[in-house]
Design a protein that fits this description.
The longest helix is centred in the last third of the chain and has 30 residues. 55% of the residues lie in helices and 8% in strands. Helix 8 links the parallel strand 4 and strand 5. It folds into two domains: 215 residues, HUPs (Rossmann fold), CATH 3.40.50.620; 70 residues, Tyrosyl-Transfer RNA Synthetase (Orthogonal Bundle), CATH 1.10.240.10. The chain is elongated, with a radius of gyration of 22 Å. The strands form two sheets. A three-stranded parallel beta sheet has the order 1-2-3. A two-stranded parallel ribbon has the order 4-5. It contains 14 helices and five strands. It is mainly alpha-helical and 323 residues long. The structure holds adenosine-5'-diphosphate and tryptophan. Adenosine-5'-diphosphate binds next to strand 1 and helix 1.
């Protein structure tokens, strides 16, 4: 059996880029026989940048509702809040004492955040150590992540190996990053990579009217209705291409090339595609967001299972360390 583990920070509502680039591929991986998946909401990590409790609660619910709306099977797997497994904080302290200071000081993501953010707190600095604890507490074998997280996985492997070799033990499984090169980069409404940091994202869970407004605001060139258009340089087409089937895509491509097809038409087609493709997920998402008792129940199922694994591992770590 392979254990697959990944976390998403609870700093916002997952957008179309997160869904196509992270949530859907991870769920597909979890469906392979022989894989057991632990997907969690990295709410402790979110405290490094987000201090408001109400925002955090809303975003935790939203990330959980997204995984469930996209049919993550919680019977076979585990979905949980990082903060509900206190063993992860205990392990973080132990791992801190095996982490060379320069390794954290030289991490790209720390350098990047400390250049950009006004609040450069110690949580940002030790972020990779908490991430290492997230992973090795559960004996994860594979960690599906984006390219930006690869260095964090290298740090995790370093810390785990250091610990193992210090005690001539194999307490921790050494995990591997799983970076899917084939995963598409979803463009945002301005054509840059879709990201919450660029505020160019499509939230597929918006009410119809608001969603339509966002889709209609996708940036295009100024060609007139009559003019033929180049689908391959158009953001509307690029996003449509990630959602439609072969026939729908080639029909839109022809429309672009032959002219008398405006960007308004293409945007309407994209809006309708989002509504139809994600109809079930949008309904499921809102039914969970409107019934947080149910959401809580589903999370607690995963938390109980994850905690059992965490308790066993921390017991072993304490005994190796002489605590
Ligand atoms: P954001 O850029 O909005 O802050 P995150 O960095 O929190 O998103 O990414 C969470 C996950 O979603 C990562 O696995 C990342 O690779 C994936 N992801 C984010 N944006 C995109 C995108 N535009 N296209 C594809 N995958 C994305
Ligand atoms: N740092 C990851 C991100 O920002 C989120 C995360 C926290 C994570 N802990 C993890 C991802 C453990 C994978 C495994 O995307």
């Amino acid at each position: 059996m392979s254990r697959i583990l990944t976390g998403i920070q609870s700093t916002n509502i997952p957008h179309l880029g997160n869904i196509l680039g992270a949530v859907m591929p991870a769920i597909k991986l979890s469906e392979q026989p022989g894989n057991e998946s632990l997907f969690f909401i990295a709410d402790l990590h979110s405290l490094t940048t987000q201090k408001e409790a109400t925002q955090r609660i809303n975003s935790v619910n939203s990330v959980a509702a997204t995984w469930l709306a996209f049919d993550f099977d919680i019977e076979k797997n585990m979905l949980y809040r990082q903060s509900r497994i206190p063993e992860v904080c205990e392990l973080t302290w132990y791992l801190n004492c095996f982490t060379p200071y320069p390794m954290l000081a030289n991490a790209h993501s720390f350098k990047d955040k400390s250049d950009r953010l006004s609040d450069v707190n110690s949580g940002l600095f030790t972020y990779p150590v908490l991430m290492a604890a997230d992973i090795i507490l559960y004996d994860a074998h594979f960690v599906p992540v984006g390219k930006d997280q690869v260095q964090h996985l290298e740090i995790t492997r370093d810390i785990a190996s250091k610990f193992n070799s210090h005690y001539s033990s194999d307490v921790f499984v050494i995990p591997e990053a799983k970076v899917d090169e084939a995963v598409m980069i979803v463009p945002g409404i301005d054509g840059q990579k879709m990201s919450k940091s660029y505020n160019n994202f499509i939230n597929i869970f918006l009410p119809d009217k608001d969603l339509k407004k966002v889709v209609m605001s996708i940036v295009t060139d100024a060609k007139t209705l009559e003019e033929p258009k180049d689908p391959d340089t158009c953001n509307v087409f690029k996003i449509f291409q990630l959602l439609g089937n072969a026939e729908q895509i080639s029909e839109m491509r022809e429309n672009y090339l032959k002219g008398n097809y405006g960007y308004g038409h293409a945007k309407t087609a994209l809006f309708e595609m989002i509504l139809s493709k994600f109809e079930k997920q949008r309904n499921r998402y809102w039914s969970l967001m409107n019934n947080t008792n149910e959401l809580e129940k589903q999370l607690q199922i995963g938390e109980q299972k994850a905690r059992t694994i965490a308790r066993e591992k921390i017991k072993l770590v304490r005994s190796v360390l002489g605590f």
